[in-house]
Design a protein that fits this description.
The complex is a heterodimer of chains A (373) and B (318). Chain A contains 19 helices and 14 strands. By secondary structure, chain A is of the alpha/beta class. Chain A has two domains: 202 residues, Periplasmic binding protein-like II (D-Maltodextrin-Binding Protein, domain 2); 148 residues, Periplasmic binding protein-like II (D-Maltodextrin-Binding Protein, domain 2), CATH 3.40.190. In chain A, the strands form two sheets. In chain A, strands 1, 2, 3, 4, 7, 8, 9, 10, 11, 12, 13 and 14 form a twelve-stranded mixed β-sheet that branches. The longest helix of chain A is centred in the middle third of the chain and has 18 residues. By secondary structure, chain B is mainly alpha-helical. Chain B has two domains: 48 residues, no CATH class; 228 residues, MetI-like fold. Classes of the chains: A alpha/beta (373), B mainly alpha (318). Chains A and B meet through helix 1, helix 5, strand 9 and helix 19 of A and helix 4, helix 6 and helix 12 of B.
Amino acid sequence: MNRLKFIDRMSQGRVSRREMMKAAAAFGVSATLLPRAGRAAEMLTCLEWGGYDDPAYFPAFMAKHGVQPNFSVFSGEEEALAKVLAGFAADIMHPCNYSVARFVTAGLTKPIDTARLSHWNDVFPVLKDAEGVVVNGDVVMAPADWGNASVAYRPDLVEKDFLDAPTWGILYDERYKGRVSTLDDALVIQIGLMVEGKSYDEVYNLHGDELRAAAETWGRKGLETARFLWTDATELQQAMASGEIVAAYAWNDVIGNLKEQGIPVAYAVPKEGFFTWFCGLSILNSGKADEAAAYDFVDAWLSPETGKLLIEGSGYGHANTKSFEIADAEAVAAMGLDDPIAMMANSTVFRTPDNAVQEDQNKVWEDLKATHF
Amino acid sequence: MSSATTNGVALRDPARRREAFAGFWLITPALVVMVSMLALPMVALVVLSFWTQDGFTLDTTFTLDNYRRLFATSERGVAWMGMTFYLEYPVPAILMIKSLVMSLTATVAVVLMAYPMAYFLAFRVKRNKAVWIILLTIPFWTSYLLRVFSWKVVLGFNGAINSGLISLGIIDKPLEFLLYNPAAVMITLSHAWVTFVVLPIYVSLEKIDRSMLEAAADLGDSRWRRFRRITLPLSMPGTIAAALMVFIPTVGDYVTPQLVGGTGGTMIGSLVQQLFTKQNDAPMGAAVSLVMMLVIALLVLLFLTLVGYWKMRARRQG
């Protein structure tokens, strides 16, 4: 995905309509601008992360239905959740292990009948019954993609002490003021506490006065140091490519995409640990499309071909064991992601805070941002 | 009462009645749009602001809680920019003040920028005025989003300004204060709204009777005095209208701060959007936006009174 110099290309008029739409989709305008194909049956509507709205990720669905679903792109699950609660009729959502429970609590998901998924048997067993995939005995999310969250940095631009001992602390370090970026999420507060020495398990469910106190110290520090908070990985990639940002909270794809551009970039193993997430597809009950189409879409995502693309293209892992057999061996080795069991043992898997806690964290974070000048 | 009676008498005359109905039919489309797209949503917003939300469910019992929370005072003050807010929930108040200051600055900048442009258009351009006006509106043929993005390209780290200055050897490191701060929001807003200001000012300048200027010149007024005593006062109504046209919508803007504001550029519109979405508190969002609307309305009334707009109007009509 060579979208790095998107703005440069745009200014020179070298951007195709499709690419432009993709970029526009990042701001959620695609649904209103895309020409609607004839509506014999109601079209499948998917809430998707930016970048995943590409037919290459669901070839089997394209082969069967011939036309891609409507996409509405979001930058965070809470945003997507709010949209569905406000009445947006989506059939498919792409939540993650730590966020799917929010959709279940809101009464939006339908249990998935795994017998209707032809690739289900090939899914890593550890993912099949992981927290987030099964909620209250029902499979509510078919695991699809997984990967990490850690510090991506420019080895040529950071100080030596970071190279010697990588730490999340760089995102709060005065010396890097205006040269780091982080995800627009309350995680900024939690990671700050981890820098202080607490473990993730101690802080993921933080709420009330403790949360507010931590927000005032670590949250504020993070805001003061950050150049901007990213909501769109492309924005981060551009800033890292130009050297504007030297270190940032990032997912695996940033590393892959920047390396492809020949930009020196590395993925740290911070002393506080790095995160693992896994995401998947949920079928929502708000949708209007045929349920069979929804299952076709989920099944297409679980296919080994999709996995191969994820592994080779973005450096993400995939839920299907066969993906790793057909993917380029070098790419598999490069990402070090071939074994989800080992990966989950070595890293911190994101967890789901209680519903009320999640809302408290959202609120504290938004209020903190609002009063930051 | 008396006007209603006269109307009643008038409507008894069939010809008059037909005319009145024709008028009514003419405004119907506009009326339908206004009622369905503006009045009804407004009513919904007002109703919503008296409800509460807990998690995902709306509690529809009538309560003033949202407003109470907005104005509830607290012993503990929260300091922001040298001011202390003794409020329990100070975020909306802080953002309101910040947004007002930011859009006021943008408004003043726009008017100062647009007035000379309008003046040039009205007094100096003799031929092909339409072409000039079209040229002025060209940036508005693209979407607002693209215009904001082009400012990102201009102000960015390796953007036009920085690479220009570097290649001229004036600086050796890109300037970082250009983007991702409140100033970037104000610059972007100023540019985005400039046409909306040039056109009304241009119209009011164009309407000025040139013979007055000639008379003043004949009586010995200097250029500056002519401007100050004739042109400026007569173009004031247009200028004031233009200023309001920028000020009112920019206070609630949230796209611009989102894209170029960085960590510190949030405005009150962003809060309303967040309350409706991520914070899951639509009733509070409704209350904040209604209070925001009232504050803006009061400020506009105050402003119009201060500049003597009512007198100005009376004079013009009399």
